[in-house]
Write a sequence for this structure.
């Protein structure tokens, strides 16, 4: 094999490995649960694109509150949180 072929093979392989390593690191740092990473509201599971379907354990999500859209890890849904403020007392007319 010529030197040029070895050069293309080695540096092409390193380029592909760099992309694979970056993808794996990106998938490892995705947050757990169904909460939005920006506003902590509950997200909805939406229909993903075909390219996202082959990634196991991930779910495409969309936040109704802030409009964030992205991937989250597939986990059990979070329990509803108690309101931060007590409910207002009913006003009598
Ligand atoms: Zn949000």
């Amino acid at each position: 094999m010529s030197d040029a072929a070895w050069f293309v093979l080695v540096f092409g392989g390193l380029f592909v490995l760099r992309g694979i390593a970056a993808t794996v690191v990106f998938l490892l740092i995705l947050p757990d649960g169904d909460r939005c990473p920006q506003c902590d509201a509950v997200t909805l599971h939406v229909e993903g694109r075909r390219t996202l379907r082959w990634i196991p354990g991930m779910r495409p999500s969309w936040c109704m509150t802030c409009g964030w859209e992205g991937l989250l890890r597939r986990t059990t849904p979070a329990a509803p949180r108690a309101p931060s403020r007590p409910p207002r007392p009913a006003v009598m007319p």
